[in-house]
Every structure is written in C-alpha cells, then in structure tokens.
Amino acid sequence: MNAGRDRYLAGLEVYRVGGAVRDALLGWPTVDTDWVVVGATPEEMRRRGFRPVGRDFPVFLHPETHEEYALARTERKSGHGYTGFEVHASPEVTLEEDLARRDLTINAMAETPEGELIDPYGGLQDLEKRVLRHVSPAFVEDPLRVLRTARFLARYAGLGFTIADETWALMRELTESGELAHLVAERVWTETEKALGEPEPAVYFRTLHACGALTVLMPELIGSGAELDEALQRMTRLPDELPETERSRWRWARLVERLDEADQRTLSESLRLPRSYRELGWQVALTRQLAERDTPDADTVKAWLDGVDAWRRAERVAPLIALLALETPALATRLERAWREVSRLEARALLAEGFRGGALGEELARRRRAVLQREMERR
C-alpha cells in the first residue's frame, strides 16, 4: 500500500512495523500488516474515518482495508505482569521511541510505505546472523516476553536461529524474579496455543524448561527429564490424515497423554484450557492406557469407548484408532474392525423388538459387549 495514494492517510507519517517487516525480509509468509502513525492524535484519526478499537492504547482500523494503525507510544512499568504498564501516546513520541519498547530487535524494524527500511536497533543484522536478541534492558519489564521469545524460536529454529546469550540471561532473570507468576492464564495459553502451531513446537517447551519458566507455568509437564523428552518427541508423531487445523489440539493431547487425570485437571485449570483441548487430552490418555494392555478384552474396549463418549460422538473414534496405528498397528486393526461391527447396532432395532426403558439400555450394552468380544477374539 502507498500511503501517498491513500486519501485517508494523506499527510500522515506512517510506517509498516513489526512482524510484516521481519517476515518479508526472511521470505516468510506475511499474514497481518501493522502500521504505526507518528505525530497524530486520536481525534485526527477519527476525523479521517478510522475506527478506534484499542482498549489499552490508541489503535484504529482503516476505513477500507481494516488494517490496524496504532499511534506511536511509549510504555513505563507500573505494576506486575503483562498488563502492569502505563502507556503514553502523543504526537511527540518518535518512531525510534515506539520501536524501543518492542521485545526483540527483529521485531523492532519499520518500513516506509515506499519500502525504505528503518532499523535503529540492528534487527536486520540479527536476522542475517539468525539471532533472537532483546532490544533493551526493558525486556525484563514484561514476563510475557519469555514466552514470546520461546515461540519465535519454535517458528524459526529450522532456519538456524538461536537466542543471544545476554537475552537468555534476561529470560532466566525474569523467571527467578517471580514475575512469571503474575501472568494471567489466558495470556500464557494464547502464546502456548500459537506455539503449538509453529513448525517446531517442541522447541517452545524445551526453551521454557531451559530457562526455568516451565517449572513455574506448567510443572505437571516436567516429571523426570526423560518423561518430558519422550512427551516432546510424541508431539511430532501424528496421523497423516489429521487436518492442519486440528494439529495444535492433537499436539497438546500427545504432550499430556501420560499425565494422570488429576494432573491433567490441574494443568487444564491453571491454563484455563478450552474445553476441546481438555477433552481431547483425556481421550488420548485413555487410548494410551488401552494400548498398554497386552490383549484388551471386550470389557476393556467397551470401557474405552464409553470413556471417549463414542456412542454419541462417533467421529472421535477413527482419529484415535489412527493414532494407535502409529505404535500398535495390530491392535488398531482389531479395534477398527470391532468398532465397525459394533457401530451397526442401533437402539431403534431393539425398540422394534419390544425393549423399553432400562431394559433397552441393558440389552444394548449386552449386545455391544458380545460383538466386541467376538471381534476382539478373532485373529
């Protein structure tokens, strides 16, 4: 977009900033474009037709493109956690001051609408060196930056990125300061869910563990070091047929599948997990327990189907069996056959035979067990 040809932006000092600049330089796909406006006031933005959307600082949506335009601002630490900042936005704030409040140098670059790069903190050099480096010592004022740095490493580790030694030191300092405990669960989960969708999500958890943050935020995952390593390796083993939109949920489920019900519940509550993540985590755990039985009998298989609510949510079964096929293909084949046969039993057929009320439920359960026993005993 050329601000000089945009009547809404004519005369404004506008810069493209952050991730769009970084990813364009890397040749990485750019999803969203953010802009900073220097020297303007909220009143002027509204007069030009921009719609305010920011709650904590002045952000406006373009009347036609709906891209975000934020007024240049500075931040000053005033309390604990991610929200403990006083924001100052005014026409006097310079672009360099706005960029200085950002977390990493690679995120602190700007570009004019004509494509001229503005890089006061060495972001381009760090991109070329494949280094994640903090912009300033103010990095330690925001504990969320520990998680963001780990997430960016999960995204770019395949390109050879590492974290600068001095940034590692600040991440450990933030962990030891107790600031991480002030992060609200929703912010921790937002970063974690984004990390689950990155190319190398295991790097996120390894990074948090290495700086001590995992002990504070998700201690249930750690166990012994070997258990965590095994869990992170499992995250990469998913059925090929899973849609891309489902992979984050399944990665999480594989990460927590060896946790018992109490630890899963504690972790879910501390992170305020969405229901779909909580439920899948436990379904995969039940499937793991089934796989650990040498020769599961009809009662065990029926208990598993009951546990994953298969009779009402039949769509859950096939992907769980596909997951089993990765490690116990023979069992998966038998279960697939047994599920196919037992699924043919319908309550309405029993109604036609005269079963009603409790007798109907008992007979349906009896017949299901009989089919499962027959199929699981077949070779």
From TrEMBL:
ATP binds at residues 19, 22, 102, 148, 151. Its EC number is 2.7.7.72. It comes from the Bacteria. It is an enzyme of class 2 (transferase). Keywords: ATP-binding, Magnesium, Metal-binding, Nucleotide-binding, Nucleotidyltransferase, RNA repair, RNA-binding, Transferase, tRNA processing. Residues 160-221 form the tRNA nucleotidyltransferase/poly(A) polymerase RNA and SrmB- binding domain. Mg(2+) binds at residues 32, 34. It catalyses: a tRNA with a 3' CCA end + 2 CTP + ATP = a tRNA with a 3' CCACCA end + 3 diphosphate; a tRNA precursor + 2 CTP + ATP = a tRNA with a 3' CCA end + 3 diphosphate. InterPro entries: CCA_bact (IPR012006), NT_sf (IPR043519), PolA_pol_head_dom (IPR002646), PolyA_RNA-bd (IPR032828), tRNA_CCA-adding_enzyme (IPR050124). SUPFAM superfamilies: Nucleotidyltransferase (SSF81301), Poly A polymerase C-terminal region-like (SSF81891). Its cofactor is Mg(2+). CTP binds at residues 19, 22, 102, 148, 151. Residues 15-133 form the Poly A polymerase head domain. One of its GO terms (molecular function) is nucleotidyltransferase activity. Belongs to the tRNA nucleotidyltransferase/poly(A) polymerase family. Bacterial CCA-adding enzyme type 2 subfamily. Catalyzes the addition and repair of the essential 3'-terminal CCA sequence in tRNAs without using a nucleic acid template. Adds these three nucleotides in the order of C, C, and A to the tRNA nucleotide-73, using CTP and ATP as substrates and producing inorganic pyrophosphate. tRNA 3'-terminal CCA addition is required both for tRNA processing and repair. Also involved in tRNA surveillance by mediating tandem CCA addition to generate a CCACCA at the 3' terminus of unstable tRNAs. While stable tRNAs receive only 3'-terminal CCA, unstable tRNAs are marked with CCACCA and rapidly degraded. A single active site specifically recognizes both ATP and CTP and is responsible for their addition. This is CCA-adding enzyme. It comes from Billgrantia ethanolica.
